[in-house]
Amino acid sequence: MKWTLMVAMTMFATILSGCEPLLVLDPKGPQAARQASDILMSIGIMSGIVIVVFTMLVYMLVKYRASKQKADYEPPHIEGNIWVEVIMVGIPVLIVAFLSFVSVQSNYIVEAKPIGYDDKEPLVVYASSSNWKWHFSYPEEGIETVNYLYIPTDRALEFKLYSYGPITSFWIPQLGGQKYAMADMVTTLHLAADVPGEFMGRNANFSGKGFAENTFNVTAMSQEDFDDWVKEVKETAKPITEKKFKDLLEPGHLGQQTYTGTHLEFSPPPTGHDHSEESSETTESDTDSHSQHENMNH
Questions:
Q1: Torsion sign across C-alpha atoms 204, 205, 209, 214
Q2: pTM for this one?
Q3: Is 42 a residue whose pLDDT tops 60?
Q4: Strand order in the sheet with 197-203
Q5: What are phi and psi of 255, to 5 degrees?
Q6: Which uninterrupted H or E stretch holds 91?
Q7: Is the peptide bond before 3 cis (omega within 30 degrees of 0)?
Q8: How many Å apart are CA 217 and CA 194, to the nearest integer?
Q9: For 204, which of 62, 128, 166, 169 could close a Cys bridge (C-beta 3.0–4.6 Å)?
């Protein structure tokens, strides 16, 4: 048994040593840091529950094992214990209530603009997907990339997501959680990168046979380097045309490409309501208009 246990532990350690670190637990931005904190907290709570339950199980099996009692032993008749019942019901209720509170609070935090980035206007990027590519349009900079994304650090990022095909999911694990991109509406995702580096981005929603390679590279750099890159693109890249963009939408895989201008000029995003905008930003006039519209419908 001793040698079997040692061999099993050695094999287990060897296998684990070859595993790459979980990207969601290696955050490089405030949104991802909040989510990683919630994940670790949930793991800690669940581990504590498992340890307590298995400890009680072992204790009960040892203390009340059949071999310890006399052959004529009869267990006492017990009606119940109010404190045991309160503990058995109350503790799970408190755990669920606490996790629910933290989840709702975190959801509002990660859906809003990152805290501490109010000194600069957010960089707006339109991220659209097609089979099986990602198109990134920088309307303020007047450039567009395919399958790669350059972003500045220490600046809020505002992604406008939509799709030219099936529903996809935009996900950069080290910067934040995923959000869906759909054909008939625009969703907004707020992210930020605290440090320079290269990150992996991908489509996290199955969208056909090319789904596995529907990935893109993300490079975070200083604002100065980002401005230099934009300047270089405008000097060297070719303009994107409507014909070229239609060719890019054809199903298939491509490498990284760069263009001046954006497809937003001749192929604008869907005009459907942006369901990702914060309800707190809804103006009073918008609310009044909605109420009048509802009254007319009734």
A1: negative
A2: 0.79
A3: yes
A4: 148-152, 215-221, 197-203, 168-171, 179-181
A5: -85, -160
A6: helix 82-111
A7: no
A8: 17
A9: 169
